[in-house]
């Protein structure tokens, strides 16, 4: 609720529903979750979730990342796999949530998963768009706010845009909160690099990105238009 650019944004009304409800319903509709929980430090969000029938967990205010917040909930909510869906993504695709989780459910040796889509050329140089490069087995080699790989020669494949969904094994998730920030994570401000620093491989499945996350009131207006068009 304390967003500096958009105070109260998780509960902003989008076509008759608070934003967090759109995200919650997409997670439910993914069909992959035994339980969907809204993790929040704000009592107002707890009350809103109760009103539309969602389970919510009150967490500490001092978490630096969303993964830290999920890890707090995981200390008392036991599961084999946890999926982190960010609360400012009301246009998130249920299919992408499912694709994020499925590799870990299919192969328990995979400790973490995420999603990529093809990056539009106009976003190559936008540092707000995170890019990823992968190996032959679809595991991430690196994430960056720069357009990677560098185009010294013609690109052999499309630039991959990271979609901010994460699936974790219980072991990897609980370990994360005990690690200090890694140098690459600090430089890029990307929490997934902390996992890679500690040897956790991240499986990247191809999915659909969202048209728009909500960081400002103007973006909320754009999302209303997109939801109305749907």
Task: Please tag this protein with its features.
230 residues; alpha+beta; six-stranded mixed sheet; two-stranded antiparallel sheet; 8 helices; 33% helix; 21% strand; globular
Task: Characterise this structure.
With 230 residues, the chain is an alpha+beta fold. It has eight helices and ten strands. It has helices spanning 19-29, 43-52, 66-74, 94-106, 170-176, 183-188, 192-197, 217-229, and strands spanning 13-14, 17-18, 37-40, 55-58, 81-85, 112-118, 131-134, 140-144, 160-169, 202-206. The strands form three sheets. Strands 5, 6, 7, 8, 9 and 10 form a six-stranded mixed sheet that branches. It has a two-stranded antiparallel sheet with strand order 1-2. A two-stranded parallel sheet has the order 3-4. Strand 7 and strand 8 form a beta hairpin. Helix 3 packs across helix 5. The longest helix has 13 residues, at 94-106. The protein is globular and about 55 Å long. The two termini are 27 Å apart. The model has no long low-confidence stretch (mean pLDDT 95).
Give me the count of strands. Answer: 10
Query: How much of the polypeptide forms β-strand, as a percent range?
Result: 15-25%
Q: What number is the mean pLDDT? A: 95
Oligomer: single chain
Supply the number of helical segments: 8
Overall geometry:
globular
- How far is the first residue's CA from the last residue's CA? 27 Å
Q: Which structural category fits the helices and strands? A: alpha+beta
- Give a short account of the largest sheet: 6 strands, mixed
Percentage of residues in helical conformation: 25-40%
**SSE pattern, N- to C-terminal:** EEHEHEHEHEEEEHHHEH
Unreliable parts: none
Integer-rounded radius of gyration: 17 Å
